[in-house]
Amino acid sequence: xxxxxxxxxxxxxxxxxxxxxxxxxxxxxxxxxxxxxxxxxxxxxxxxxxxxxxxxxxxxxxxxxxxxxxxxxxxxxxxxxxxxxxxxxxxxxxxxxxxxxxxxxxxxxxxxxxxx
Length: 116
Hints:
This protein is mainly α. The chain is built from 6 helices and no strands.
């Protein structure tokens, strides 16, 4: 009612993850907050994110923050957390597999800029 939304992210989540992975996670959660502020039902929230321009927006935001990030890496990171959506499942198997691999490498800190 006061217009303030709080996002909680576990301090241990992604402990060794790349900066790009952290940014993608935070942007994803910010989109949840924005959608909530627009009184869009939380039921099917990931579908709402996936079936809109939010994936493109997230990709562009990630490239803006990390200019060395390729468009395919940015898109893969933007798809993180959407694996069970009809949008993600409608993508080719190659794109889904590549997205999962890129996200895993960034989450484990094997790719991207490391946090200190």
